[in-house]
Amino acid sequence: MRYQRWTPLLQGLVEDVGVPATAAADPVPQQAVPVVPVQRPAPPEGYRLAVEAHRAAARPSRVDRGITQVVQRQTAAMRKLSRGAFPEPDVVPADAPAPIEQARVQRRLQAAATEAAVLRRARAERRTAPAPDVVPLQQQTPAGEVA
After folding, report:
1. In the chain, how long is the greatest CA-to-CA distance?
2. How many angstroms separate the CA atoms of 7 and 117, rounded?
3. How far is 49 from 10, CA to CA, in rounded Å?
4. Are 10 and 24 a contacting pair, CB within 8 Å?
5. What pTM does this model have?
6. What burial letters (b/e) apply to 96-107, b meaning 16+ CB within 10 Å?
7. Between 31 and 19, whose confidence is greater?
């Protein structure tokens, strides 16, 4: 029932596309329900007067000019101190890496050096000490026996 208002619009759209209007219409015609506007009771006179008075009243300013000036002075002083404590860095050449990148590169170099030292040490230990599970070939077969 809610879609009856849209049916003429849909028929026009469907006809534009090339589909006959009978295909878009509902197969079962339904009774049209008349749309009746809802009438609300008028609000009480006192309510309307209160709303009008509220809208007409000018809101007093809550901002004191003296406080505003003090806040502006304090903000300026804090910015000045901040600039002194945290100065802007000098202009860095375009090809120079950022400080964070420098730290990352340094950490990667240190990690690579540590890894290389560990690998050298492990290789040296393997060369000097035989593995405990490996027995040299000469000790496996007695001299008089042939495999």
Report:
1. 127
2. 82
3. 47
4. yes
5. 0.26
6. eeeeeeeeeeee
7. 31
